[in-house]
Design brief:
heterodimer, A: 206 residues, mainly alpha, Rna Polymerase Sigma Factor, Chain: A, Arc Repressor Mutant, subunit A, 2 domains, 8 helices, B: 371 residues, alpha+beta, Jelly Rolls, 4 domains, 13-stranded mixed beta sheet, three-stranded mixed beta sheet
Chain lengths: 206, 371
């Protein structure tokens, strides 16, 4: 019996949720233990202030316990519910106490002008894992906040495009856009590096 | 130029492809294998896309809270759980007063209870802790396989290694092993055949005892009734050492330096949890049990491949489906000691020019036979 996603001694997610609504402390503890780490990881993509993320996670769990009897009866995914709530909470906090930097960058500036052809993407298929890993790290560090958020929700948290849209409060097309831009930016960085290397290699010739 | 349906970026964004990479199942496996058969020139692209998806998942998941942060957050949440809503009724003072005492007493009792519970939960020696803290620190992407049947059961790990689990035993592992280590937790008894990967050591956590290898075959017996953990090596070299629960990376690496090194046909027994040596490193006594995989040699000399399949079926408790008429005449000469199950199949199929497909505990061999 292989269980991909387990809910402790509760057979299904719905049963776990019901137990929580009925005031089962173990169910509550279990939900906190199961989700708080990935929630924290997600929160860190929304704000660089870890204290804000910590507070927000505490707050949403305190509220869930306090208002457990009034929680929605039917829930499709506890994880989805928690993520959406966390995002709202963090954004509320940041609006109330505006941080020094701009929080949401609506213009999403391109990292580099698009000037290389797609054919060069073939090159990245044959490079070593080490270089690949390093490049991904560099790229993610450069990505605008919302693209990074979308990438995290997609690849780490494994939400569907539809769910990501609902969590981020945008339509599916925008989510696809975020993801597309992120991966395109990635390609451009890649091409930039290759060109840079080509130039370096060509230098001794002159 | 031939029309190719998916570029690298297409694949990285493809819903079904992502789902297959992160959560493969038989159906998606079959689909993408079929895809590769149709477009063999895409093999490299698919491999790169897989790697990128792993990396994206790994890198975007790096911001985990420390244990200290986790407990701090939980403490705040927990404290709030027992705070009652402020009472508005001022006029019934004496009653409120009495109630307040009762409430305080009840809260104290509750908090003590919770404390005792968590004390019991966190400090109980053995697999619970190692499972929680050592294998799946994120609590995510962890797969648990329980062998509830009365027979042995094969578990194929994502890296190609295989484990034969005894009845009543349980194995947990991460479905994505993108970190520096391959880590699994064993409760009960299992025989491991591990794919060599010197860059990524393989660690088995079992009731406070760690068995570390780079690629080899060995068995770990950490059944609860015995109170001890026995490790026996068949091929290669393994290191065995105890770790205390909640040990830091540093402490683990120090413990490892003082660990016991076992070579082929050696075994050791330690007490579960504390890691006291019960039986020092000694030579194993080979029990000639044909049913037990750890004592089987898998050395074949001009053996009909159908006999080889029978031996594999018995050792791994799987069903191998093949065309007897076609394969009967294929002789096999091979030494298949210590390789994981899928590697063994690959070697055999390569020798008889056949292909294999694993589906749960069923294996289908397709080949045209030998002249």
């Amino acid at each position: 019996m292989v269980t991909e996603d387990t809910f402790g001694r509760w057979e299904t997610e719905q049963q776990l949720w019901l137990a929580l609504r009925q005031g089962d402390e173990q169910a509550f503890t279990f939900i906190f233990e199961k989700y708080h780490r990935t929630l924290y990881n997600y929160g860190c993509k929304l704000t660089t202030h870890t204290a804000v993320t910590e507070d927000a996670i505490q707050d949403i769990f305190i509220d869930i316990w306090r208002l457990r009897a009034n929680l929605t009866e039917h829930i499709s995914s506890i994880k989805f519910y928690l993520y959406r709530t966390l995002r709202r909470r963090i954004h509320q906090t940041l609006d109330k106490y505006p941080a020094t930097e701009e929080i949401t960058d609506l213009s999403e500036p391109d990292i580099m002008p698009l000037s290389f052809s797609d054919s060069q993407t073939l090159l990245i298929e044959s490079e070593s894992n080490l270089i690949r890993a390093q490049r991904i790290r560099e790229l993610l560090a450069l990505l605008p906040e919302r693209q990074l958020e979308a990438i995290t929700l997609r690849y780490f948290d494994e939400f569907s495009i539809e769910e990501i849209g609902q969590i981020m409060g945008v339509n599916e097309k925008s989510v696809r856009n975020f993801l597309y831009k992120a991966l395109t930016a990635f390609r451009q960085t890649q091409n930039f590096i290759i060109n840079f290397l080509l130039i370096i290699c060509a230098l001794p010739i002159f | 130029m031939k029309y190719t349906p998916y570029s690298l970026t297409d694949l990285i964004r493809h819903d079904a492809f992502i789902a297959w990479v992160l959560n493969p199942d038989a159906e998606s496996d079959a689909y993408w294998k079929g895809f590769l058969e149709q477009y063999p020139e895409k093999t490299k692209t698919v491999e790169s896309a897989r790697e990128y998806i792993y990396l994206l998942a790994e890198d975007t998941g790096r911001n985990r809270p420390t244990e200290a942060q986790s407990s701090k957050m939980w403490k705040v949440v927990e404290d709030s759980m027992y705070v009652e809503e402020p009472v508005a009724a001022e006029e019934e003072k004496p009653v409120v007063h009495a109630w307040r005492w009762l409430r305080v007493a009840a809260s104290v009792a509750l908090i003590c209870g919770i404390g005792a519970m968590s004390f019991w939960y966190f400090l109980r020696p053995g697999e619970m802790i190692s499972l929680r803290q050592k294998v799946a620190p994120a609590g995510k992407g962890s797969i648990e396989v329980v062998n509830a049947s009365a027979a042995k059961r094969i578990v194929l790990l994502p890296d190609g290694s295989s484990v034969v689990l005894d009845p009543g035993s349980q194995l947990s592992y991460q479905k994505m092993q993108t970190g520096q280590k391959r880590e699994v937790t064993l409760v009960g008894k299992g025989f491991f055949e591990i794919v060599k990967d010197p860059g990524k050591p393989f660690l088995v956590y079992s009731r406070g005892i760690v068995t570390k290898v780079l690629g080899t075959s060995f068995s770990v017996d950490a059944r609860e009734k015995t109170g001890q953990v026995k490790v026996e090596v068949k091929t290669g070299k393994v290191t065995v050492f105890p770790v205390s629960t909640g040990a830091t990376e540093m402490e683990v690496s120090n413990a490892e330096k003082k660990g016991f090194i076992l070579y082929p046909d050696q075994r050791i027994a330690l007490t579960a949890g504390s890691g006291k040596v019960l039986k020092p490193v000694e030579a194993s006594i080979r029990e000639l049990d044909q049913q037990d995989i750890s004592s089987q040699l898998f050395v074949f000399d001009e053996t009909p491949v159908t006999e080889v399949f029978k031996a594999l079926e018995a050792a791994y408790n799987v069903k191998i489906i093949y065309n007897v008429d076609a394969l009967e005449k294929c002789p096999l000469t091979a030494t298949l000691v210590g390789q994981p199950f899928s590697k063994k199949l690959a070697v055999i199929c390569n020798a008889i020019d056949a292909t294999y497909e694993i589906n749960g505990d069923q294996v289908r061999i397709t080949g045209n036979g030998c002249k």
